[in-house]
Amino acid sequence: MNNQISLNRMIFPMDVILKAINNYRDICSITPRVMENYVICTINYQEDEISLIRDEFCNYLIALINSKGNLND
User: Fold this and answer.
1) 44 - beta bridge partners?
2) Residue of 30, 6, 26 lying closest to 18 (CA atoms)
């Protein structure tokens, strides 16, 4: 089981990462660990569905970046 995502901060701005984590709070627990150039997100969810949650979270991050002008919605 791989419940971690490594996000490059040059691609994924911190405000987008934090918004996504906040929006996912009713689905699962995601804990960010900020490194110099990366943010490591650890997802806590049912083991058998962790890969689905991880993949959907990544898709959601990309969608937020694509609509970054609407982050305050």
Assistant:
1) 29
2) 30
Domains of the chain, residue spans: 4-68
Residue 12 DSSP label: S
CA separation for the pair 43, 50 (Å, rounded): 8
Q: 8-60, pLDDT tens digit by residue?
A: 999 999 999 999 999 999 999 999 999 999 999 999 988 888 999 999 999 99
Question: Which two tokens mark 49?
Answer: 């569905």
CA dist 51 and 29 (Å) reads: 14
pLDDT for res 71:
46
Note whether 61 and 17 are within 8 A (CB).
yes
- Decide: residue 52, CB within 10 A, 0-12 exposed, 13-18 middle, 19+ buried: exposed
SS3 call for 26: coil
